[in-house]
């Protein structure tokens, strides 16, 4: 009986001691874990503080503006577009041509289903004046006093189209050139021209009609001397400034602008130009 009592008391004491050790171990473990966690948190906060101190003034202001946390700040002043100013001078005569207001009215009436009208006699001076591309007022006559007061121009798209053809001849695609080269206009869609006083050019032409080619006589203005300035933007990541200048030079010798240009007519020798000067800036990448 005594032995059994001793065994029972011994087992009970052992169980109590085990429970105590478990509870103490768990409590101690939780305390140690909390201490380790707090220590890690302190280290991480100290690291953040050091990183924030290491930031420059530009990065801190950029983060305030953006309102977001980033390790790498993008430079907003980085620009990949360069600018070139090319002065060109015509080395041959230049003959402009455009749809006259009379022709536009006839096309509008035809589209609306209006009955056809009989054509009256030609107004030679009016036909010649309607061929001008003008910035501002249009001259009322072909007198020298009227023409001196007029500011002549030409669509900037004509120069870009000539440069595009030159780029295609060098192995480029038309879409690639259009995406990486832009030409700025002076007024609307035209560039200003410095020209001599134009004269009326009279020459026979053949027009395509239902009965074949019909002969006719055209009265158009002709400039013996002309020059202009082209302001070109180019993407320096895709094309270099030297390539843009080469395209402009090739366009002046092989493409041209206006009527009877080499790029349109096989016998054309008008509307060509040469480069006088080219000044540009190279963009600075980030």
Can you describe this structure?
- It contains 8 helices and 9 strands.
- With about 290 residues, the protein is of the alpha+beta class.
- It folds into 2 domains: about 60 residues; about 200 residues, no CATH class.
- Strand 6 and strand 7 form a beta hairpin.
- Helix 6 crosses helix 8.
Overall shape: it is globular
Strand portion, in percent? 15-25%
Enumerate how many helices there are, as a single number: 8
Number of DSSP strand runs: 9
Summed up, the domain count is 2
Level of helix content?
Answer: 40-55%
Average pLDDT taken over every residue: 78
Radius of gyration: 41 Å
Taking the alpha carbons of the first and last residues, their distance comes to 94 Å
The major β-sheet equals: 5 strands, antiparallel
Return the structural class: alpha+beta
Unreliable sequence segments: 1-7, 19-53
Pattern of helices and strands: HHEHHHEHHEEEEEEHE
Provide the fold topology.
Blueprint: H1 2-54, H2 57-66, E1 81-90, H3 101-111, H4 124-130, H5 144-148, E2 153-155, H6 156-169, H7 174-180, E3 181-184, E4 190-192, E5 194-195, E6 199-209, E7 212-222, E8 226-235, H8 241-255, E9 273-281
Antiparallel strand pairs: 1-8, 1-9, 2-4, 3-8, 5-8, 6-7
Summarize it:
The protein is of the alpha+beta class. The protein has 8 helices and 9 strands. β6 and β7 (212-222) form a beta hairpin.
Key structural traits:
alpha+beta; 2 domains; 5-stranded antiparallel sheet; 8 helices; 43% helix; disordered N terminus
């Amino acid at each position: 009986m005594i032995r059994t009592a001793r065994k029972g008391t011994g087992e009970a004491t052992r169980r109590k001691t085990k429970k105590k050790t478990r509870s103490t171990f768990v409590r101690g473990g939780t305390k140690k874990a909390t201490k380790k966690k707090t220590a890690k948190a302190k280290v991480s906060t100290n690291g953040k503080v050091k990183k924030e101190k290491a930031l420059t003034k530009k990065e801190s202001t950029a983060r305030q503006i953006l309102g977001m946390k980033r390790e790498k700040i993008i430079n907003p002043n980085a620009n990949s577009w360069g600018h070139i100013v090319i002065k060109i001078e015509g080395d041959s005569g230049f003959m402009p041509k455009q749809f006259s207001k009379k022709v536009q009215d006839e096309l509008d009436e035809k589209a609306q289903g209006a009955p056809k009208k009989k054509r009256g006699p030609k107004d030679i001076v009016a036909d010649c004046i309607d061929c001008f591309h003008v910035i501002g007022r249009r001259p009322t006559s072909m007198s020298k006093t009227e023409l001196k007061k007029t500011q002549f121009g030409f669509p900037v798209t004509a120069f870009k189209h000539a440069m595009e053809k030159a780029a295609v001849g060098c192995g480029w695609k038309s879409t690639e050139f259009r995406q990486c080269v832009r030409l700025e206009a002076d007024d609307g869609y035209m560039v200003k021209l410095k020209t001599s006083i134009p004269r009326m050019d009279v020459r026979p032409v053949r027009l395509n009609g239902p009965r074949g080619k019909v002969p006719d006589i055209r009265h158009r203005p002709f400039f013996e001397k002309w020059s202009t300035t082209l302001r070109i933007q180019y993407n320096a990541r895709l094309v270099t400034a030297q390539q843009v200048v080469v395209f402009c030079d090739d366009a002046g010798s092989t493409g041209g602008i206006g009527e009877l240009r080499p790029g349109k007519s096989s016998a054309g020798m008008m509307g060509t130009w040469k480069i006088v000067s080219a000044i540009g800036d190279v963009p600075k990448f980030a």
